[in-house]
Amino acid sequence: MIPWTYQSSGSSSDSGQDSNFQYYQPNPSLILNSQTQCIATINSPNAYTSSMVLSGKFLFTGSSDNQICLWRRNLFSTELGHESSPVCNMGVPGKGVVKCLVVSTDKIFSAHQDHKIRVWRIDMDERENGKFTHLATLPKLSDRAMKFLVPKNHVEIRRHKKATWVHHVDSVSSLALSNDESLLYSVSWDKTIKIWRTHDFRCLESISKAHDDAINAVAISLDGYVYTGSADKRIKVWRKDSEEMKHYEVSILEGHNYGINALALSTDECQLYSGDSEGAIVVWQRVNDGDLVVAGALHGHSKSILCLAVANDLVCSGSADKTVKVWKPFEGLNSCLVTLEGHNGPVKCLAVANDQYQSSDSVSSCLIYSGGLDFEIKVWQVLVPNV
């Protein structure tokens, strides 16, 4: 396995690399022996897995047939992988894909292709069998009714058609929770960002035309910065004004030549990773004044980056090229440690198990969960040398 080292690029090449970028290029003189194995494969005959998130001992998955499932992670083993069934599952009202899932202390939020956000509670019995309870669909009927009665709350969504500003009018593509879990942020292909209060599910704010094209991803730092990535090739940084209690645009990050599909913050939040439709992952480094600047780009995928996930010092990327790549900092730079091959379709979603990242003197181990358009969920055990 050949890692990638940081190297300045010269002029633009035939591959379309921007001369303003610095790239990680192969360094044959440095080889790390990473070991990996697929320890479980779950087949879904009816739908592909479109979203996933880990929470404690469980894995939540959303699918293209509007199902949300809860899996007990200890059932994913070589022996049980093909026979495991979810602890519980829920067929969601409406049609379309479950685009994103986030879990708070006591709730699960799901984003849907039918323009809605749904809120759930999981009730577990003493045998750890679960049951989904539907708490709300956002925007709530009461919220819609209050806004509907006041004309100024109506916005034009297309020619000769209006809706209240609490509505998303296209697929809700991504969700994120504030650090204290009091606010839920949703972004949509309708180019808007909406902020919801989680205790009563009220829409507090809508940023209309936040981008010039569909918004595909959102990430939030512990200190309150909100990052949104769009098909308009830009990342925007937002911050809440403590006096007006409204969000304002802090800066625009420009460095991609193609639309942005995924965002992820490093564990220490000093780097932001953004993946685009050409297969590049741009690494943004936070400098002393808090601004983010381009530190480099990770190249190795041959098609679109569809998802990113971070755990401790590992960065995982899933792509339309049917592979998952695992990246690890080496001498301050990110090296491609291993490529996970086994999916027969694009890799749509990823999750990395933080709590199973266990280190010895020479080797670290973690579990990576991947969902593909091949209707399979795979679980990978990756052993990484400590360098």
From TrEMBL:
<dbReference type="InterPro" id="IPR036322">
    <property type="entry name" value="WD40_repeat_dom_sf"/>
</dbReference>
<protein>
    <submittedName>
        <fullName>Uncharacterized protein</fullName>
    </submittedName>
</protein>
<dbReference type="InterPro" id="IPR045182">
    <property type="entry name" value="JINGUBANG-like"/>
</dbReference>
<dbReference type="InterPro" id="IPR015943">
    <property type="entry name" value="WD40/YVTN_repeat-like_dom_sf"/>
</dbReference>
<dbReference type="InterPro" id="IPR020472">
    <property type="entry name" value="WD40_PAC1"/>
</dbReference>
<feature type="repeat" description="WD">
    <location>
        <begin position="298"/>
        <end position="328"/>
    </location>
</feature>
<dbReference type="InterPro" id="IPR001680">
    <property type="entry name" value="WD40_rpt"/>
</dbReference>
<keyword id="KW-0853">WD repeat</keyword>
<feature type="repeat" description="WD">
    <location>
        <begin position="208"/>
        <end position="248"/>
    </location>
</feature>
<keyword id="KW-0677">Repeat</keyword>
<feature type="repeat" description="WD">
    <location>
        <begin position="165"/>
        <end position="206"/>
    </location>
</feature>
<dbReference type="Pfam" id="PF00400">
    <property type="entry name" value="WD40"/>
</dbReference>
<feature type="repeat" description="WD">
    <location>
        <begin position="253"/>
        <end position="285"/>
    </location>
</feature>
